[in-house]
TrEMBL record:
Transmembrane segments: none annotated. InterPro entries: Homeodomain-like_sf (IPR009057), HTH-type_TetR-like_transc_reg (IPR050109), TetR_C_36 (IPR041485). This is QsdR family transcriptional regulator. It comes from Nocardia rhizosphaerae. Keywords: DNA-binding, Transcription, Transcription regulation. Residues 86-196 form the QsdR TetR regulatory C-terminal domain.
Amino acid sequence: MTEQTPLGKRLDDLAARPDAITAFKAARSGFLAGRRLEMKELADELGVNRATLFRWVGGRDELLAEVIWSVAEPTLRRAIAANPGHGAHRIAAVLGDFAQAVNTSDAFRQFLRREPERALRLLTTQAGSVQRRFVVLIADLLTAEIAAGTLDPPLPVPEAALLLARISETFIYADVISGEEPDAAKVVQASLVLLGERPDR
């Protein structure tokens, strides 16, 4: 067994103490496993009281939003990397791939079925931070295509980005919103129409 110095022991002690990052990682792991996030259970798991947990991460909705975005953002970035085309067709393909990934994610579908009202509030309104960040990434995509001369959208970037986000949300969360089946293909078609392209081209 390796001898440990006093400083090494203190560093190990610090590493073993739960904090906001530990709480976030535990919450994310539970979300991906399809479990409902319960603050009391999470506090018990971390060995702290609820007041400490709330001080670290804010409320349950704030923590859920961060967990969801930590999964959604890399999913969207993978969709961006997988579609190196140009213009409206590239943006539509990115959003379609993202929608397909979300629609086939067990963790997201379980969350939607378990807490539909909270899910819609966190994911599709300004009450949560997820939609705002989603819109920013779409705006970045639009701006890059415009700068490259491959896109001339019929709307200013902020409005187009928000509408593209809402189109994606409509068909990703269709089962919760309207009782219809989620449909990634419709995300592609509607996005192309919004950006002034024919879907069948």
